[in-house]
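Repro:
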Amino acid sequence: MKRRAALKRLGMASAAILATPTVLSLMNACTTEKDLWKPRFLSQEGGKVLQKMVDVFLPKTDLPSASELNIPEFIDQYLKDVYETEEQTLFNAAYDKVIISLKAYSQKEVEDLKDKDIQGFLDTHLKVKDEVDTERQNNPNYKGLTVSECLDCLKWMCVNAYITREKIGEEVLAYDPVPGAYYCGDLENLTSGKRWSLGYTIARN
């Protein structure tokens, strides 16, 4: 399935980042040019890895890439402003492990990483349903995130931040500039299966 079609249907399979006024304000403030952005929560190295990784999750096609929509900047701010202190500490520890593992896997420094290096790393560490996370299996009581869990968290934030961006909401998802209506029916019939960009409630008959 092409990415445009897949994004239209994401709302049928996953929950989006809650589009509260605070989060939307945070997202709208993320407008720094890609080459000028400096992370405020992550390290400089962590920010560079994030920029490269989100564009493997969501590369440029007929739609903008994730980095073109300032998704790394938003994730960095979200971690800084929304996560509790303990969550930040646990995330940082896991993300440090991700970077160390990625450099060991690729045998490259961050500046030299290519998309294929990151894609191979993700193929190795991102788990699909029923696949075993051996790091978690070996330490089931660990309070932090494993490498696989951290990558899954980043992918979730990336995809859901992407579909919450105004451009995607207006041009890809089902969009109504005057929110508040209550529609009763089947999502497939109402919007051709597209998720509402402004968080409408759908009541099935």
